[in-house]
C-alpha cells in the first residue's frame, strides 16, 4: 500500500493535470462556438451556389459543351482522396476515426489512390501505414478563409484536368452539433450537380430544393456556358472550403468533449486517492497507537 506522502504527491499531480484539461476544455469550447457560427453561415452560401450550378448545368446551351470538371472519365485508372484531420491531438479518437474511415474507403477502391492529407496527424498515420501520400497541407488556421484552402483546390483541379487522376473524393468529419459528428466521404470531381447524394453538401440541401433550382428560369449574361465556366471551379473550391470548416468545428468540439471527460476522470481519481490517503493515515495512526500501547504494556510488565 502506498504511503501517505506518496498519495499526497499523486493527488497534487492529478489536480495539476485536471487544471490543464479544464483550461483546454474552456479554450476548445470557445473555438468550437466560433467555428460553429462560421460553418452555419457558409452553409447558406454553399446552398445558393449549388442551386446556381444545378440551374446552369440544366440549361440546354450549357449541356452542349460540358465543362471538364463536369465530364466523367470513361475509364477510372487513378483516384485522389483528400483526408482532412487535425494538426494536433488531445481530441479523443477524432483523428484515428477519420483516418480509419478513409482507409476502409481507399481499400475498397478497385484502382490505385493518391492521398492528399490536410493536417499533420492524418499525414503521419497514413504515411506509417504505407499509403501513397502525395501532398500535405497543415497549419490551417482555426477560422480559415478561401485563401487558406486555395492551394488544395489548385492541386486537385490541376491533377484532374491533366489526367493524373480520374476522380477525386474528400473524407472529413461532418459537424452536426457540439457532441455529434459524422464521418463522411463524398465525391468531389467530377461534379454531379444533378446527383445530390454524390455531392459534398448533401447534408444540408434537400432533393426538393435541387429540383426547384433546376426548374427555375433565369436569363444569363453573357450566356449559360460562360457562367458555367466561372461557377464550376468556384463551386469546387467552395466544397473543399466547406469540408475544412466542418472538420475544424468537429475537431474543436471533439477536443472539448475529450478534455471535459479527462477533467471528470481526474476528479474521480482525486476522490479515490483522497480515500486511499485517509486509509493510509488511519493505518499509520493505528500503528502508532499500537506501538504506544505495546510500549506501555512492556513497561508495566517490567
Brief description of this entry?
With 302 residues, this protein is an alpha/beta fold. It has helices at 4-58, 60-64, 94-108, 120-128, 146-161, 207-215, 224-301; strands at 79-84, 113-118, 133-137, 167-177, 180-189. Helices cover 62% and strands 13% of the residues.
- Determine the strand fraction and express it as a percent band: 5-15%
The ordered string of helix (H) and strand (E) elements is: HHEHEHEHEEHH
Predict the CATH topology of the largest domain.
Answer: Pyruvate Kinase, Chain: A, domain 1
Q: Tell me roughly what share of residues is in helical segments.
A: 55-70%
Question: Structural class from helices and strands?
Answer: alpha/beta
Poorly predicted ranges: none
The number of distinct structural domains comes to 2
Key phrases:
single chain; 302 residues; alpha/beta; Helix Hairpins; Pyruvate Kinase, Chain: A, domain 1; 2 domains; elongated
Characterize the structure shown.
With 302 residues, the protein is an alpha/beta fold. 62% of the residues lie in helices and 13% in strands. The chain folds into two domains: 4-26 and 260-301, Helix Hairpins (Orthogonal Bundle); 44-256, ATP synthase, F1 complex, gamma subunit (Pyruvate Kinase, Chain: A, domain 1, 3-Layer(aba) Sandwich), CATH 3.40.1380. A five-stranded mixed sheet has the order 3-2-1-4-5, sandwiched between helices. The relative contact order is 0.19. The model has no long low-confidence stretch (mean pLDDT 83).
Give the topology.
Elements (H helix, E strand, L loop, with lengths): L3 H55 L1 H5 L14 E6 L9 H15 L4 E6 L1 H9 L4 E5 L8 H16 L5 E11 L2 E10 L17 H9 L8 H78 L1
Helix pairs in contact: 1-6, 1-7, 3-4, 5-7
Amino acid at each position: 500500500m502506498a504511503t501517505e506522502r506518496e498519495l499526497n504527491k499523486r493527488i497534487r499531480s492529478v489536480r495539476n493535470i485536471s487544471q490543464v484539461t479544464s483550461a483546454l476544455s474552456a479554450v476548445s469550447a470557445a473555438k468550437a462556438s466560433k467555428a460553429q457560427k462560421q460553418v452555419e453561415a457558409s452553409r447558406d452560401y454553399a446552398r445558393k451556389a449549388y442551386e446556381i450550378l444545378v440551374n446552369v448545368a440544366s440549361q440546354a446551351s450549357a449541356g452542349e459543351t460540358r465543362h471538364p470538371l463536369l465530364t466523367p472519365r470513361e475509364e477510372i485508372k487513378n483516384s485522389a482522396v483528400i483526408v482532412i484531420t487535425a494538426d494536433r491531438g488531445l481530441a479523443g479518437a477524432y483523428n484515428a476515426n477519420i483516418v480509419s474511415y478513409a482507409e476502409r474507403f481507399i481499400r475498397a477502391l478497385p484502382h490505385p489512390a493518391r492521398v492528399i492529407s490536410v493536417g499533420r496527424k492524418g499525414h503521419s498515420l497514413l504515411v506509417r501505414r504505407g499509403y501513397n501520400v502525395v501532398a500535405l497541407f497543415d497549419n490551417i488556421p482555426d477560422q480559415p478563409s478561401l485563401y487558406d484552402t486555395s492551394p488544395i483546390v489548385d492541386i486537385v483541379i490541376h491533377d484532374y484536368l491533366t489526367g493524373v487522376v480520374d476522380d477525386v473524393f474528400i473524407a472529413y468529419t461532418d459537424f452536426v452539433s457540439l457532441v455529434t459528428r459524422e464521418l463522411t466521404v463524398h465525391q468531389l470531381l467530377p461534379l454531379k450537380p444533378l446527383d445530390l447524394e454524390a455531392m459534398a453538401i448533401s447534408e444540408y440541401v434537400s432533393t426538393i430544393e435541387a429540383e426547384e433550382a433546376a426548374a427555375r428560369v433565369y436569363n444569363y449574361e453573357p450566356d449559360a456556358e460562360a457562367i458555367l465556366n466561372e461557377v464550376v471551379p468556384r463551386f469546387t473550391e467552395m466544397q473543399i472550403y466547406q469540408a475544412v470548416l466542418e472538420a475544424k468545428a468537429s475537431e474543436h468540439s471533439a477536443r472539448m468533449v475529450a478534455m471535459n471527460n479527462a477533467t471528470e476522470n481526474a476528479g474521480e481519481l482525486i476522490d479515490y486517492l483522497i480515500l486511499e490517503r485517509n486509509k493510509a493515515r488511519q493505518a499509520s495512526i493505528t500503528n502508532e497507537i499500537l506501538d504506544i500501547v505495546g510500549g506501555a504494556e512492556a513497561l508495566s510488565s517490567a
